[in-house]
Amino acid sequence: MVKQLSLFNQPSLNVNRVLKEQMARSAKESGLSRDEILEKMNRLADRNGIRLIKGNGPALTMSSFEKWLNPEDREHLPALNSLVIFCAAIDDQEPMRVLTAPLGVELINENDIKLLLWAREYQAAKRARARMKKLEAEL
Are residues 67 and 114 in the same domain? Predict the structure, then answer.
């Protein structure tokens, strides 16, 4: 089903500032220091063969990381792989939600998936019961 957007109620597709604000909030709420987050990110990136930065540097530096979390800095944004590593390091998908929200897409977790699968099966069973009732009435 396609959702038609109103001319007056369109979300901004420029998510940079909101993304940086959410990343900073998620980092703060993670319970980890920025040093710990940076260390985890660099470890995860190394383990998965992902470069977090452009250039010749071996790893993400605190200076670059701070720029990613600063909403006032419009120049420095994490690459998509870097954002995935950030979310994995702090175990929080909220920054990804910021990316998908303007498109009307909702991210769901494992429990939501199970609930969705259950609802589909429930609806299928309900339709089957209705067909069975109709057939029984014809007997």
Answer: no
